[in-house]
Structures are given as C-alpha cells and as structure tokens.
Specification:
The protein is mainly alpha-helical and 129 residues long. Helices cover 76% and strands 0% of the residues. The protein has one domain.
Length: 129
C-alpha cells in the first residue's frame, strides 16, 4: 500500500468519499432542520436552551447514522446473496465492517455538527410571521 501509487490513489478516494458523505448528510440534516424551523423557534420561545436544541440535532444525526448503517448492512447482505447465487463468493472481514460502521457514525455526527449553524435562525420572533 505504501510502496505503490495505488495506495495514494485509494487514500485520496477515501478522503474524498468522507468529505462528500459529510457534505451530503449535513445538507440533508440542514434541510430537515429548516423544514422544522418553526418548531425549533417554539422550543426557544418556551425557554429551551440552545444547548438542548443542539443535543436534539446531534441525536437526530446519530439516529440518521444508525439508519444508514442498517440500510448499508441490508444492502451488503443482498449483494452477497446475489453474488453467491451466480457463484461469486464475497467475504467481508469483521474488523473491516466494524471500521466502516464506525466511520459512518463519525460522518453522521460530523454532519450534525455542521448542520447546527442553522439553529441560530430559530428565533421566537419567527412565530409571528
């Protein structure tokens, strides 16, 4: 891996995939927050602190990551079954699966951190419009 150009290309591809994953999921979370901005403004009007709202967003991003993991595991199983049906065995080592699952959760939490900036727009005065 360290002695060939393919290792450098693979490392760059992984880095690029992480950036794209964070960008896409943060924009999705940002859209979800914007669609519920009136509810967040209601929470602020009721006296809920910004810290608590941030925790809600982080929990939302965590559960989005868990749902993504379940979908990825299901699609991996379907792919392995389809490949096995045509005689092509697929073996994914458990440590690799654990590492990928961990990275997917890191991506979803990092996306939640990036999407938190939109909470500043949830002012209680928005409820009067």
């Amino acid at each position: 891996m360290h002695q060939q150009i393919i290792g450098l290309l693979l490392g760059f591809a992984v880095f690029l995939a992480i950036l794209i994953g964070i960008g896409i999921t943060s924009q999705t979370l940002r859209g979800a927050i914007l669609s519920n901005i009136r509810e967040f403004a209601s929470f602020r009007a009721l006296g809920i602190s910004m810290g608590s709202l941030r925790l809600i967003v982080m929990e939302l991003s965590f559960w989005v990551g868990v749902a993504g993991l379940l979908a990825a595991l299901g699609l991996t199983q379907l792919t392995a079954l389809a490949a096995g049906a045509i005689g092509l065995p697929i073996a994914v080592p458990v440590p690799t699966m654990v590492w990928v699952c961990g990275m997917l959760l890191v991506i979803s939490v990092a996306s939640g951190v990036m999407a938190m900036g939109i909470l500043k727009k949830s002012q209680p005065a928005d409820l009067l419009r």
